[in-house]
Design brief:
By secondary structure, this protein is mainly alpha-helical. Helices cover 84% and strands 9% of the residues. It has a domain of 87 residues. It has three helices and two strands; from the N terminus they run ααββα. Strand 1 and strand 2 form a beta hairpin.
Length: 185
């Protein structure tokens, strides 16, 4: 838009400078033939010849066309600016919706993580309790097995001790008998 505005302004200024330097030629009246229509009902009436400075007419029409083009460009630019403004507002609304959606998703993720951690904590505590019970049962079983083995060993020791005591008693009896026999002999 700036380039168009600059070019249009430059063309108008050059046209005005050209008109100033060539004013006498542009202002010279020449006979012109124009087409005449009836105003209230568009109907061709005929041709009419008038005296008019053609250079001035061309200059004025050029300037008017440039100004019309400039005004159309300004109106187009204003429409574009309104559309940009509307699009910026839509983008801002969408950005706000996106941020809200992201916050909701983060909240959902936080809730999901919290519930996941609490489930994990609960299951971990249950596993720890189950492992504690199982280890307690295993320890009690090992303890009872150990006590039973100790009792078996004690009974075997008692049996071996009794056998040893019985052998010692028999050996002592045999030694006494032999000592008596030797003393008798």
């Amino acid at each position: 838009m700036r380039l168009k505005g600059i070019l249009i302004t430059l063309v108008i200024l050059l046209s005005l400078i050209f008109a100033l330097f060539n004013w006498q030629v542009l202002a010279a009246s020449v006979p012109l033939t124009i087409i005449v229509f009836k105003a209230n009902f568009p109907r061709f009436i005929g041709l009419k010849t008038v005296q008019f400075p053609i250079g001035l007419g061309l200059l004025i029409s050029g300037v008017l066309l440039s100004l019309i083009f400039f005004m159309v460009s300004l109106i187009d630019r204003a429409g574009q600016l309104r559309q940009i403004s509307r699009l910026e507002k839509q983008m801002e609304k969408l950005r706000a919706k996106l941020e809200q959606k992201q916050l909701e998703e983060l909240k959902n993720l936080e809730d999901l993580a919290t519930s996941g951690f609490s489930e994990l904590k609960t299951s971990t505590e249950e596993n720890i309790n189950n492992l504690g019970k199982q280890s307690k049962e295993v320890i009690e079983k090992l303890d009872s097995d150990l006590n039973e083995k100790i009792k078996n060993i004690e009974s075997k020791i008692l049996l071996v001790r009794n056998e040893i005591a019985s052998h010692v008693a028999k050996t002592e009896d045999n030694i006494r008998k032999q000592v008596r026999e030797i003393s008798k002999s």
